[in-house]
Amino acid sequence: MNTQERTFSIVKPDAVAAGNAGKVIQLLTDGGLRPVAMRMMHLTTAQAEGFYAVHRERPFFKDLVKFMTSGPVIVQVLEGENAVARNRELMGATDSKKAAPGTIRALYGTDIERNAAHGSDAAATAKDEIGFFFSGAELATLG
Ligand code: CMP
Fold first, then answer.
1. CA 9, 117, 80, 135: dihedral to nearest 10 degrees?
2. What is the three-state SS of 89-141?
3. Rounded to 5 degrees, what are φ and ψ at 118?
4. pLDDT at residue 141, as a whole number
5. Per-residue confidence band for 3, with pLDDT thresholds at 50, 70 and 90
6. Residue whose CA lies nearest to ligand 1 atom number 15
7. Cα(1) to centroid of ligand 1, in Å?
8. Is the pLDDT confidence value at 138 over 70?
């Protein structure tokens, strides 16, 4: 069965500012996820609020938006076998302090907010998140 799928990923401002973006992308690629679209951008408050709208009522929302707009990020679409689950496995637990050794969040994040990377939590979310940042014409076709 062909289980190739796509997911959405953000290398967050903490990882970019620390000069770890390349290492994060390498870990994802080595883990079987190939970027098919990628852009560096500095999110506006409106973009961060829109992207994380599902968390709008959470106590950490305001701080999260502040963090996500604190510096440039790299948004990307990743393709590979079971890409959504694989990306989450490579990132590790949301809280960098609890993430398994060797995972992206353990290596390059600090805590539950400054956690180096975002990844879609399900295939349906991935579709929405990819559409939030990329048009179809921006997605490469890999051989
Ligand atoms: P992410 O996978 O991008 O999805 C939502 C983000 O909110 C999460 O990573 C963290 O950066 C942040 N987050 C989640 N839970 C908390 C929390 N309890 N306190 C602060 N930030 C959080």
1. 10
2. HHHCCCCCCCCCCCCHHHHHCCCCCCCCEEECCCHHHHHHHHHHHCCHHHCCC
3. -115, 145
4. 86
5. confident
6. 112
7. 34
8. yes
